[in-house]
Every structure is written in structure tokens, then in C-alpha cells.
Write a structure and sequence with these properties.
This protein is mainly alpha-helical. It folds into 2 domains: 35 residues, no CATH class; 57 residues, Orthogonal Bundle (Lyase 2-enoyl-coa Hydratase, Chain  A, domain 2), CATH 1.10.12. The protein is 69% helix and 0% strand. The protein is built from 6 helices and no strands. The longest helix has 34 residues. It is extended.
Length: 118
């Protein structure tokens, strides 16, 4: 999974099991984003990055991008398939429906699976 690759298994478990919404600074500290800019600075910042990249060797940039893509692809297809399958399964559960409803109604969820007889 992308998140495990970015932040490690321990942090991924914490984030996925807690459902915590990250603030920009937290995402930066975890390495999920590389920088935070003010709204008015977004376009100038993006342009500055583009200008910096244009100074690099096109051949070297292409080689690095190919290497990174090759490395990432090794298990990505399999991981994505697992993730899509797990996501689809969860979206059909009563807990998912209750979670969405509770979120939209701005209330705490009353999970149906907590009341299910085992």
C-alpha cells in the first residue's frame, strides 16, 4: 500500500485504525507532502519548482523517473488489487453506510457490527 511505503507500517496502522484526519503540518512531518504553501503562493511556488526542474538534465531526469517507476511497480499492481477489493467489500457493509450517514449528520456513528450477535 502507498501509505505503508510512505510512512511505515506502525504509522499506517495508527492512521487507518484511528481514522484520524491529518492537518497539513502533520502530513508534512510524516512525509506525505513535501511542502506547504499559502493559497496565494501556490502558483508562484509551482512555477519556481518547474523552473528548477527545467535546469536539470532531461536524460538524467528520465532515467531517475524510470528507475523509480520500475521500483514502485514491482508490487504496486498486486497491492492496488488487494486495496480495491478490500475497499469494495467494506463499502457494502452496514458499518460503512452508518459511518457515511453519521458523518453527513455530524454525529457519532452507532456501528451496527457492535450490536451484531456472534
Amino acid at each position: 500500500m502507498f501509505l505503508i511505503r510512505q510512512v511505515g507500517e506502525l504509522r499506517t496502522r495508527e492512521l487507518l485504525l484511528s481514522g484520524k484526519i491529518l492537518k497539513a503540518g502533520e502530513a508534512l512531518n510524516l512525509g506525505l507532502v513535501t511542502q506547504i504553501v499559502e493559497h496565494d503562493d501556490l502558483i508562484p511556488s509551482a512555477n519556481a519548482l518547474a523552473q528548477m526542474l527545467l535546469l536539470n538534465s532531461p536524460q538524467a531526469m528520465q532515467a531517475v523517473k524510470r528507475l523509480l517507476a520500475k521500483h514502485a511497480k514491482r508490487r504496486l499492481d498486486e497491492e492496488l488489487e488487494d486495496g480495491v477489493e478490500a475497499n469494495a467489500q467494506q463499502r457494502s457493509t452496514e458499518d460503512f453506510k452508518e459511518g457515511v450517514k453519521a458523518f453527513l449528520e455530524r454525529r457519532r456513528a452507532d456501528w451496527p457490527s457492535m450490536h451484531a450477535k456472534v
